[in-house]
Amino acid sequence: MAKLRTNRSAFMYWLAVGVTLTLWHAIGSRALANDINTIMTRYDGKTTKPESIFMFGSKYSVFSPLTMNRINVELERRGIDFKIGNSFIGCFQIFKALNLLSEDYNRKGC
Predict the structure, then answer these.
(1) Is there a domain that residue 101 lies in?
(2) In a domain, 5, yes or no
(3) What's the domain range around 51?
(4) Model pTM?
(5) DSSP string spanning the chain?
(6) Residue 104 lies in a domain
(7) Is residue 15 part of a domain?
(8) Model pLDDT for residues 38-93, shown as the tens digit of each residue
(9) Residue 35 and residue 4 in contact, taking contact as beta carbons nearer than 8 Å
(10) Given this model, what pLDDT does residue 58 score?
């Protein structure tokens, strides 16, 4: 079982997206989708495609409500006391949620 990253940072992610003119977005969203699927697919039978993680708005990008809901359900299933909000702040909270889920996955396994 490979260890998942537990040091994701929303600030560094968005900084890299800006510096690389969104090239990092394609690479980073693939890594996020792979970790989401590694942690959750066994229990919910769903998969997340990298292109469906974000919804692009006219002002800024936000995470898809389906992705946020899927992560919230997994947090609750694992007994982790953290919720992702449905606002712009949720874009930053999702990185913390994935760090918490990855730590739990690395410790307990599936």
Answers:
(1) yes
(2) no
(3) 10-108
(4) 0.85
(5) -PPPP----HHHHHHHHHHTTTHHHHHHHHHHHHHHHHHHHHHH-----GGGSEEE-SS-EEE-HHHHHHHHHHHHHTT------SSTTHHHHHHHHHHHHHHHHHHH--
(6) yes
(7) yes
(8) 999 999 999 888 876 765 553 445 567 788 889 999 999 999 999 988 777 777 89
(9) yes
(10) 39
